Amino acid sequence: MQVGLLGLGTVGSGTVEVLRRNREEIARRAGRDIVVKAASARDLKKKRAVSLDGIELVADPAAIIARPDIDIVVELIGGDTIARELVLKAIAAGKHVVTANKALLAKHGTEIFLAAQKKGVMVAFEGAVAGGIPIIKAIREGLTANRIEWIAGIINGTCNYILSEMRDKGLPFDMVLAEAQRLGYAEADPAFDIEGIDAAHKLTILAAIAFGIPMQFDKAYVEGITRLTAIDIKYAEGLGYRIKLLGIAKRTDKGIELRVHPTLVPSRRLIANVEGVMNAVLVKGDAVGPTLFYGRGAGSEPTASAVVADLVDVTRMATADPEHRVPHLAFRPDRLSDVPILPMEAVESAYYLRLRALDRPGVLADVTRICADLSISIDAIFQKEAGEGEDQVDVVILTHATQEKHVNAAIHRIENLPTIPSPVVRIRLEELL
Ligand SMILES: NC(=O)C1=CN([C@@H]2O[C@H](COP(=O)(O)OP(=O)(O)OC[C@H]3O[C@@H](n4cnc5c(N)ncnc54)[C@H](O)[C@@H]3O)[C@@H](O)[C@H]2O)C=CC1
Ligand SMILES: N[C@@H](CC=O)C(=O)O
Ligand code: NA
Predict the structure, then answer these.
(1) What is the CB < 6 Å shell around ligand 1?
(2) Is 202 among the catalytic positions?
(3) Catalytic residue among 202, 244, 250, 284
(4) Do the annotations mark residue 10 as ligand-binding?
(5) For residue 330, what are the β-bridge partners?
(6) pLDDT in tens, 283-297
(7) For residues 432 and 282, what is the distance between their CA atoms, to the nearest angstrom?
(8) Taking every annotated instance into account, which residue ranges of this chain make up the domain ACT (predicted)?
């Protein structure tokens, strides 16, 4: 199979390297040689760590799509503008497409998969979610007997790396983010990572293949890690929890929860101990029960591992009748469900609340009364010691599961108390299993 590669950055160069190094083994698996014939790059003269011997370098990615000798176009440019045009162009030209671009699929997946279905070509995207972990294949094929109940995952390597390094080494946020960028983990615009957007792109894709719903990125609740403070990480640790950026997709009687936010997870859970760039995805199926998938979620060769696996899959299935291929999103495109995505206020979770209170009698009574009025059941309440010479104390409350709208109402009332001078910190808490 002849491959045309669009983009020779972190993942593109890893793909060239893995294909070159494991060429023979890959050919023995795929039944045919898979070779990169041409690649497009913005800077043709740039010195690269990877050997490009035998690969024709061109500036214009559209020229690669137009070549009749290219069977598969691999899109590794990123973003959802040029990449969308190129992917649609490749499909229209009858090429199969492999991409690791979650932003593109979460926003334009419906259009892209429809175009591919009409043209009878494949669009493979294992690299788009949790890097090297074969989670798309696992959910779409390995767990296909199950009614998936929920998914909870650490699906952004950059954020997990930042949280781990802040907690373990006490390093400042900005310094760790710069290191994640240097290591090739972060998106071109790292705001996509730290604001939770990249995790929401991936969660959108996971929810679609798990529940048989259309991609609905615009309905996902997205909260990143930029407002997390060292003090909450420390208090959580003291209470037996770790804070992780989780993507959660869950079926309920009323609809589907689709949410990305920092989450307290009991420290004894396996997923709480996933550190650095590693990702982990918990999938609960009705027949299999809980399953956990773990591995590198970002970086050059881990992501290339998924891209090359897709190339092998496409090579194996290229001559098969399109009707007999696994559907792109696991479910037949004409059998998608219109079950609604729940607004965040309707979601149920437990909560960690931290308030800074004036050290006066009756403050705790006021706060607990507000919670009781709103039927919020308190699991534990801790008052931290005031610092030397301070007349304010931190109060930490852990609640039982309750609807988010009740917690928001309680926070509003607590913040209006004269004894509470600053905003209440709210972090969701999930026991998970
Ligand atoms: N870096 C990672 O760990 C992972 C990245 N991804 C996804 O893979 C894709 C690529 O990511 P990276 O390799 O990290 O990005 P990158 O920024 O390292 O590489 C992108 C490459 O595309 C080139 N490019 C940009 N515009 C171009 C154009 N018009 N024509 C030709 N080339 C152009 C750039 O010069 C750059 O070399 C993105 O969609 C990203 O979200 C997915 C999983 C992991
Ligand atoms: N920026 C992403 C790269 C992989 O998808 C991440 O940090 O996880
Ligand atoms: Na993957």
Answers:
(1) 6-12, 40-42, 61, 76-78, 82, 100-101, 127, 131, 184-185, 187-188, 298-299, 303
(2) yes
(3) 202
(4) yes
(5) none
(6) 999 999 999 999 999
(7) 9
(8) 352-428
